[in-house]
Design brief:
The protein is mainly beta and about 120 residues long. The chain is about 5% helix and about 50% strand. The longest helix has 5 residues. It is elongated and about 50 Å long. The termini are far apart.
Length: about 120
C-alpha cells in the first residue's frame, strides 16, 4: 500500500521532492533495474495531467527518488488542489512488468503574485 503525503507547490517556482523508498525492514530499497513515473491531475478522471521529472538517484541502492518541476511547468499550473501518485516498476524474470505505487496524495498549488 502506498504512503500518503500532502504537498504545497508555489506557482512559478522550481520544486524538488526527495522520496526515500524503504523495504519492510525499514532499510533503503535498492531501485537498481527499476523505472519511476509520477503525475499530477486536477481530479482522478481528468484528461490533462502534469508529469513530474522523475529520477532514481545514483547509486540506485540508496533507494532515493527525486521528483521535480521547473518554474515554467509550475507557472502553467492553475492554482488549486490536485491529486498525484508515484510508481516504480521493473520487469521480472518472465518479462512481466511489475508496478508498485509508492506514494500518493494531494498537492495544493498556491497562486503567484509576481510573474
Amino acid at each position: 500500500m502506498a504512503q500518503y503525503e500532502e504537498f504545497t507547490i508555489d506557482q512559478g517556482a522550481d520544486i524538488a521532492i526527495e522520496i526515500h523508498v524503504v523495504d519492510a525492514q525499514n532499510a533503503a530499497k535498492s531501485l537498481a533495474n527499476y523505472a519511476v513515473a509520477a503525475k499530477m491531475k486536477k481530479t482522478y478522471n481528468s484528461d490533462d495531467s502534469q508529469a513530474f521529472n522523475a529520477v532514481i538517484a545514483s547509486p540506485a541502492t540508496d533507494g532515493i527518488v527525486t521528483l521535480s518541476l521547473t518554474n515554467t511547468q509550475t507557472n502553467a499550473l492553475k492554482p488549486g488542489r490536485y491529486v498525484y501518485d508515484v510508481e516504480i516498476s521493473f520487469n521480472d524474470s518472465a518479462g512481466d512488468t511489475i508496478v508498485e505505487r509508492i506514494l500518493e496524495g494531494k498537492i495544493s498549488v498556491t497562486p503567484s503574485v509576481t510573474k
